[in-house]
Amino acid sequence: MEKTDNERLELASNRIFIGGIKAVISSSDKLIAVKLQNRKLTLEGQDFNVDKLSVEEGTLNATGKVNCVRYSAFADKQSFFRRLVK
Description:
By secondary structure, the chain is mostly beta strands. It is built from one helix and six strands.
């Protein structure tokens, strides 16, 4: 199957679907963190269990109770170093 760039988050009665994943940063029973195109998605909760991960398709299916959903931008490392040089 072809990898999708469409970022998608679906939460429905303890079922979790995330689409558009570029990489998995971290996964535990209390945290799922994934890299999307230009940002990071972090889910915090309890009893997380990743049922299916397809790097080729860019999708993740999991179960668990979600307490917090956080999107954050990735810092541009070049910009940081450029700021130091100024």
